[in-house]
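Notes for week 9. Today we move from apo structures to complexes. The key idea is that a small molecule is not decoration. When we ask for a structure prediction with zinc ion present, the ligand SMILES becomes part of the input, just like the chain. The input block below holds both the sequence and the ligand string. Read it once before you look at the output, and try to guess where the molecule might sit.
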Amino acid sequence: MLSALSHTCAWLAARRFLGGKALIIGIVAFVTTSPFAGPAENLTSPDPGPIPVAPKPATSEFDERAVAVVQAAVRTEAVHEIVVAQVAERNEAASQADFWATASNEYLAAHYAELEKSYKHLHRHPELSYCETQTSAYLVKQLEGTGFKITRNFGGGNALVAVLRNGDGPTVLVRTEMDALPITEQTGLPYSSEAESRDREGNIVGIMHACGHDIHMTCWIGTARALAGMRDHWKGTLVFIAQPAEEIGCGADAMIREGLFTKFPKPDYCLALHCDPQSVAGTITYTPGLAMANIDMVSIVVRGKGGHGAWPHMTVDPVVLSARLILDLQTLVSRENNPTDPLVLTVGTVHGGVKANVIPNEVTLQLTVRTTRDASRRRVLEGIERMAKGVAVSANAPEPFVKINPNWHTPAVINEPKLLNKTVAILRQGLGDSHVCQRPPMMGGEDFARFGREGIASTLLFLGTQAADKVALAEAGDDSALPSLHSDKFAPVMEPTLKTGVKAMTLAVLNLVGKDPIHPTIRKSSDSTARSKVR
Ligand SMILES: [Zn+2]
Ligand SMILES: [Zn+2]
């Protein structure tokens, strides 16, 4: 009993003072002094390689148990070696992230003022979808002298593709969008938009980067320039693209159809950023798997029989039918859809009639439909057509025209898990854990999804854009604190949003094309080299 107690004390003491190795030492001590002990000569320095078979000089049951204990000890040692190797690898990765983060910070310290100037310029001069001529030219100018080979006017519009080859290695695509929205800015910022256009009725409307594409472009410029300056630290090919017409869901598809992946190096990975107006500036948020919804646009022409407003009985009033249909359509969401399956159906425009006492012949509705599953998408689109026809039948009206144009469809954004996990890991190391947070999926859409649908591992990261006090107010229930994307008051905080976007994307790309891991000792001597290369 005393012997057993002393073994136990030795074990506990060893665990306490020696940590991970104590288990092995404890087992060894126990075996070598125990009445169950077998031969001790090969126990003191166990071979971490293949598990040796212990000699078997005795055949008693006690000896069998002793051998089993020894083998367990050796296994434990092997596991210990693996853990040590993993910790070393993690430390090396951390030093790598630290090195890249330092290089990014130094680039930003030297060039942030230029980036802010670029952002203000782009914000002040927005252009609508497929009209991004000046914007595209501006981006080309920003990449001059970096070594990127630029192709302009690609993809049926103003798209540009900038390629930087730097030896053998993976090909990484980084995407920005260039287009803005027909919104008159109401932010009151000194660098507010000065651009105007005419709407379909000929009215003058403002144009605004209300979706943050000016932020994305500025981060894209900064990342391209930073990586061009760090080319001693990575190997591979960068494909930086600026796509037109994201707001109408066409630009990415047009570029792919015109040969983005056949006329230029086909990427192994695609990365993009999008502003997240609900998150604090300085943070990156991400969503594993499904990140954004399927988008469909539907146009319905509700047909009736026009006439005098004072003799409705001699007409079939499409205004009344439209009102009925708009309400009926919401039952597709509330009554026909599984409540756990996200679905949004919004009637965004209603156009009909020109005078109070004239019942028109028809009314046109435009809808946006957001789903997350292909099956729900099919069901709701069929349901819209069924209800539109049903309302017409109920009023003895002509059959409506329902148009579901496949060109108006944008698929859901699905982040590829391996790429996302790898990217999130480097961002946590480079930006700090508290600056990288998971967020739930959203029902907005993005045609960046097209790249993933081409079978390329893709990840879209969200970039926080708001002051912390405003986010806190919004979380406390003040709805006015945080204007959403597409709001005329959407005003991202420039710093640290731009810095975080450039740093995050630079880290994400280096994580895919970076050269051999940098050993901490090498790192010290190469710091000055990196500094001189970053411009
Ligand atoms: Zn948008
Ligand atoms: Zn957008």
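The longest strand covers residues 269-280.
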